[in-house]
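Exercise 4. Each item below gives a protein and its sequence. For each, produce the structure-token representation.

Item: GntR family transcriptional regulator (Bradyrhizobium stylosanthis).
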Amino acid sequence: MDILPDTTAETVGDSAYRRIRTDLIFGKLTPGQKLKLERMSSAYGTSISTLRETLNRLCSEGLVVAEGQRGFEVAPISAAEFQEIAELRELLEGHMIEKSFAAGDLDWEAHIVSAHHKLAAMERMLLSGERSDAESWKQCDFQFHRALVAACGSKVLLDAHAAVYDRYLRYQMIAVVFRGEMAAAEHRELKELALKRDAKGANKVLHTHIHDCVTHALRNSDWLKPVTAKDVQREPRKKAKAS
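Answer:
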């Protein structure tokens, strides 16, 4: 995840890629939407040829789908895919937590405390009813989870985790998921368990954190429908909203 990167030496193509990718992840380009090249070329300030390269790159990340000769569209979403992505995130992050908690030093601990401080401030804003800055909130959320696993010692794992997190985040933003104080409490507990180097306890909290997010999204989002009645206890359908 690199939602707010340093763009000092960014090319036109890099800028278009970053902006389109951000709009896909944060739901500004909606699932199934046709991506008209002429319109997008004007909106993102890039040539048709560069735009094609960008969209093909995003196809490889699972965020865009190529329709053969008919062009491109935003990748669809489904409850089944969200559950698969969530399981992959838990598998990766849980493994990385074990490695990171064993190897982390005092600087690692300080980074976790700092990242949690920023996230907690954003969560207090959300709990007070201020919901306008979703990108900053989720940037802080990612930075906290990234801090937990930062000492895992593997760039391959960190890159894989970032890619999976972005696909997970796309579902969160489409479903407008904020579970309120429960999520904030889980983040506090993860911070404390990291400082105690309790990887087993942290992985239990992480399981709840991810599983309950998926359940909440399936229950409350008009975009997502459970695969079967067993996937999530059915509730009356209502318009998706943050809770």
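Check: The longest strand covers residues 64-66.
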